[in-house]
Amino acid sequence: MLYAEYDPEVEMRVVREEALEEGEEIGMEKEKLIIAKNLLSEGSTPEFVHRITGLTLDKIEELL
């Protein structure tokens, strides 16, 4: 059986990439919430906001 040699640089690269992906997802979710709040403040219906942002209706209702 072959064992891969532990390489801390490879592990750090993987961890860094995962952290960047997670950060991007968090940022995108925050942006969706900002857009939803703006749409709601302009009189858009929750259903319309859902179609535009992809947020759940429950999440949108929390913003009202």
Query: Termini separation (Å)?
Result: 59 Å
User: What's the helix count?
Assistant: 3
Helix content: over 70%
Rg over CA atoms, rounded to whole Å, is: 19 Å
Taking all residues together, what is the mean pLDDT? 93
Say how many strands there are: 0
SSE ordering: HHH
* Class by SSE composition: mainly alpha
Q: Enumerate the spans where pLDDT stays under 50 for 5 or more consecutive residues.
A: none
Gross morphology is rod-shaped
Note the main sheet. none
SS strand fraction = under 5%
Describe this structure in words.
- By secondary structure, the protein is mainly α.
- It has helices at residues 8-41, 46-53, 57-63.
- The model has no long low-confidence stretch (mean pLDDT 93).
Descriptive key words:
mainly alpha, single chain, 64 residues
Summary, kept brief:
The protein has 64 residues and is mostly helical.
Topology readout:
Elements: H1 8-41, H2 46-53, H3 57-63
Helix pairs in contact: 1-2
